[in-house]
Amino acid sequence: MTGKVALVAGATRGAGRGIAVELGAAGATVYVTGRSTRARRSEYDRPETVEDTADLVTAAGGLGIAVPTDHLVPAQVRSLVDRIDAEQGRLDVLVNDIWGGENLFQWDTPVWEHDLDNGLRLLRLAVETHAVTSHHALPLLLRHPGGLVVEVTDGTAEYNRDTYRVSFFYDLAKTSVLRMGFALGRELGPRGATAVALTPGWMRSEIMLGHFGVTEENWRDALQVEPHFCISETPFFVGRAVAALAADPEVSRWNGQSLSSGGLARVYGFTDRDGSRPDAWRYMVEVQDPGRPADAAGYR
User: What residues pair up with 65 in beta bridges, in sequence order?
Assistant: First the structure.
C-alpha cells in the first residue's frame, strides 16, 4: 500500500488501532483520529491516545498522522478532510470505526428501563459519527477509482438478524452500521469504489483485557472466568482483514456485503499474531450459543 492514504476514524484503541497499525505495516500513510490525546482524555478516561496510535503506525512501517477529532462536530471532520486533501491530494481507504459506547449501554435492559440519555448518546456516537464522516470524506475518496470504505461493527448481518444484541440501543447501533455498509455499497459501486461492513470476533481490546484483569501476555488466564474467551482475537486480526481488502485488486467483489475477520482469513490466508485463524462467529453459532462446552478446536 505504499503511496496509498487511509483515514481510520476512531483509532485511539481497539479495532481502530489494530486496523491503523496493519495498514501502516502494509506501507500506507494513515491518518488516525479520536478524542483522547496526550493533552486531554475523553470521557473514557483511559491512557490510550491517538498520538500513540500514530507512533505505532510509523513503527510498523507506514506513516502515522494523528488528528484529534470529534466526529460529532461536522466542522472538525470537514477540517480533517481538507487537511488530508491539502497534504495528500487523495484518500484511498476510509475506515469508520467510531464507537465510544462501552459505558453507555445496559446489558439485558429493556428500552423503557434503559437510561434514555445514555441510549441516545450511544446512537449518536455509533451512527451519526459514521454518517458525518462519510458525508465529508467520500468526495475525496471518489476522486480516484478503486477506493474502499469499511464500516466496522459488531456481528455479521446473518448473526445480528437472528440474535438480540445486548440491549435495544446496542442492537440498533450495530445493525445500523451493517446497513451503512450495504447502502454505501449501492452508492459507491457505480462510482468505482467499494464499501463493506466488517466485524471482528471476540476482540481482546484494551478494555476487554482490563475487564478480565489480564494482559495480552497472559490473556488465557481469563478462561478460568469465561471459557469461551478461548476464541478471542487481537485487534490486529481485523486490521489484517482490512489490509487484505485494501490490497485486493478485485475487492469490488465484496461490495455491499457483511464480512468478518475470521471469514476473510479463510479467503486471504492471513493469521492473527499467534499464527491462528479464529473464526469467532461460526464458533458462537455452533458452540457458545447452543450452550456447548468451550472448545476452540477446529475454530482457530
Answer: 31
State pTM to two decimals. 0.97
Q: How many angstroms separate the CA atoms of 191 and 146, rounded?
A: 9
- The CATH code for residues 5-203+234-268 is 3.40.50.720
* Cβ-defined contacts of 36-45 (< 8 Å, 24+): 36/12, 37/66, 37/68, 42/12, 42/100, 43/103, 44/100, 44/102, 44/103
pLDDT in tens, 238-277: 999 999 999 999 999 999 999 999 999 999 999 999 999 9
The residue assigned the cell 510498523 is 60
Q: 204 and 234 in contact (C-beta within 8 Å)?
A: yes
Q: Which DSSP state fits 233? A: B
Per residue in 208-248, pLDDT (tens digit) is 999 999 999 999 999 999 999 999 999 999 999 999 999 99
Rg (CA), the chain: 18
